Amino acid sequence: MTEKVSIKRKVKCALLNILMYISCAVICLMLAGIAGYIIYRGAGGVTVDLIVNKPSLLKGTIGILPNILNTLYIIIMTLAISLPLGVGSAIYLNEYAKNKRVVRLIELATETLSGIPSIIYGLVGMLLFVQLFKLETSLIAGSLTLAIMTLPTIIRTTQESLKTVPGGYREGSLALGAGKWYMIRTTVLPSCIDGVVTGCILSIGRIVGESAALLFTAGMANEVLGIFEFFKPKMSGSSLTVALYMYAKERGEFEIAFAIALILLALTFIINALSKLAAAKLKGKGSGR
Amino acid sequence: MKRAANFLEKAMNVIFTFCGFIAIAFVVLVTVFLLVSGIPAIKEIGIFNFLFGRVWASTAQSPSYGILPFILTSVYGTVGAVLIGVPLGLLCAIFTAKMAPKGLGTVIRNAVDLLSGIPSVVYGLIGMILIVPFVREAFNLPDGANLFSAIIVLAVMILPTVISVSETAIRSVPREYEEASLALGATKTETVFKIIVPAAKSGILTGIVLGIGRSIGEAMAVMMVSGNVANMPSLFKSVRFLTTAVASEMSYSSGLQRQALFSVALVLFVFILIINLILNLVVKKDVK
Predict the structure, then answer these.
(1) Do B9 and A244 touch (CB under 8 A)?
(2) Are B103 and B177 in contact (CB under 8 A)?
């Protein structure tokens, strides 16, 4: 004998179910709509010419090569700064720090950093690197700003990965007479490399999508910078996102804007796939032992 | 040999300790810079005139620096985004975590991850091209770039945060709760809404607060769709947020105007700190 569910309850449940289906459908359709529209408007614009040229009034060419290179430079430089600092910080938190309160304080600071909006980073970066350190609006000032911004991500993922390294590894290594640094270098670091990689991928995603923090630090120039120029001060350049903003908002050239949007969308897709892969590997490692 | 190794150990200890404290150093750095550059203008304008002044005319003959329009716009915009985004996101999270068949759940989760990765300027672009004209036509306005368009874009942008955080929270509710409720004769839907969601309350709240943080700090996307005029906020008027006030005038500002922009950033920072504080209270409550 099963208790009958009253009509009122049935209607209520059905209503909630319908609402849930609708909201999921709305969200999925929205993504499909956004992606579809960007592909529709941008696909015609992404040509070889666009990618290998720089904008020039004299030659009448338009192109986003400088922006692609700038984005790449900023990624490399930002990671070169934030990776050692972030990994070092995670190692300190997990291996060296003995005082629980200190650890909690540092974690609180990291959380605070990750909550600060990028426009504030842009402002502080401008005050600190552009004006105080006299780097002027340059790629290096932009990268330094983004390095502060991506630090929390790298610290967190590295720390999570460090926690999965079994204590026995450390004890074994120390018992064999290894010093603490030797133990970390030879035992702990190799085991947490996938966490570091995940942090890198997530940071790259954040750097690629960042615009507000770069507007006043890295500048808006569209010149091609050589490999040895980009770390010099005073070399300003806009990333893909900043270029998109300038083309869409300031100049109203929507065709290029959508072409850049399509490239950014593709990058987002690739970065997402990579981070999923890295996360799966990290998780597999954690449960494998 | 031994001494060299010892020295290396000590040196690495110092280096790692330095790295460990760098996050704190950066937080202090950001706070100090904002305070030092933000306070002079507030002092000169007067804190009451600054915070509650209703007119922002930084480039006028006799300039007026009141940021109440920005504060209210940011608050209204965020409240609007939460009102639209949270119910939508929460229902989606509940469905994905508990009701969806496995394949569909994975599809939705991937879609949400992709949404969260899309750069804000791309949202801004889509907003400019699709939402702004749509709002103009639908409500018969001279210009569609207004608070309403900004709210829609912000609602979309906070969705991924709300969904992924609350979904994780809903999933981590012990299975026994569900089984007990089902055994007592509640339907699956009733169980989910009356047992599981209340049990995941603090996680869901965390998601909402994170969404609020993202919404209040968003600059580029709202800059592209909100019209960027320093009006007192109204749904169909062109408005300026705290973030866009900083971004739009910074490049050509000077003197007191520039300092006032730093003060705006300081106000924004205080908002974010309050949100962080709330977040910590919510999370800590969870641990108890």
Answers:
(1) no
(2) no
- pLDDT tens-digit map of A145-168: 999 999 999 999 999 889 888 888
Separation in Å, CA A5 to CA A11, A124, B187:
10, 61, 8
Whether residue A2 is contained in a domain is answered as no
Q: Is A127 near chain B, with CB under 8 Å?
A: yes
Strand partners, A56: A61
Query: Cα–Cα distance between B113 and B109 in angstroms, integer?
Result: 6
Of A93, A119, A210, the CB nearest to B246: A119
A275 and A254, same structural domain? yes
CATH of B68-287, one of 3.30.70.3090, 1.10.3720.10, 3.40.630.30, 3.40.309.10: 1.10.3720.10
| Inter-residue contact A252 to B132 (CB < 8 Å) | no
**Side chain identity, residue B26:** F
Two tokens, residue B91: 């229902």
Q: What are the pLDDT digits (tens) for A104-133?
A: 999 999 999 999 999 999 999 999 988 888
Tokens 């540092």 map to which residue? A106
CA-based nearest residue to B215, from B65, B58, B26, B81 = B81
Using a CB-CB distance cutoff of 8 angstroms, which residues of chain A are in contact with residue B220?
A: 211-212, 241, 245
Those of residues 141-200 in B touching chain A at CB distance below 8 A are: 156, 159, 163, 185, 187-190, 193
Sequence-separated contacts (24+) of B270-274 with Cβ below 8 Å? B271/B74, B271/B216, B271/B242, B272/A115, B272/A116, B272/A117, B272/A120, B272/B213, B272/B216, B272/B217, B273/A112
Q: Are residues A78 and A145 in the same domain?
A: yes
Looking at chain A, the number of H-run helices and the number of E-run strands are 13, 0
Q: Chain A closest CA to B169's CA: distance in Å? A: 17
